[in-house]
Amino acid sequence: MSMGLEAVYRLLKIENDMVIYAYSGDNFSYPFDKELARSYDGRIEMSLSAFKNINSFDLFEKGKVKIIKECFCAEKNTFGIDILAIRTISHILRKYRETSEIPKEGHWII
Fold first, then answer.
1. Lowest CB count within 10 Å: 65, 67, 85, 102, which one?
2. What CA–CA distance (Å, rounded) separates 22 from 37?
3. Whose CA is closest to 28, among 38, 17, 18?
């Protein structure tokens, strides 16, 4: 059974050893605005070195991954971090591990 969370993301640019993604998402267990859920209003910044060290659990602490702007429909965990962004980062790194290419776009549902 799904938790009702989903997100979409797309690569905006690769510049100065950094990768910038736009993302957005929603909790479709509740009424939502489909246009807003696909607005790509959130921003994630990832160091290219994060892709080389994808098994590291401390990417946030080392500054290799940053949530620049949370999406409008951010769902926060107990630490106050947007779980849509965390899950999106995980999805991006998993896709990279599978293909050895930086994903240009994607979608996930849990």
1. 102
2. 12
3. 38
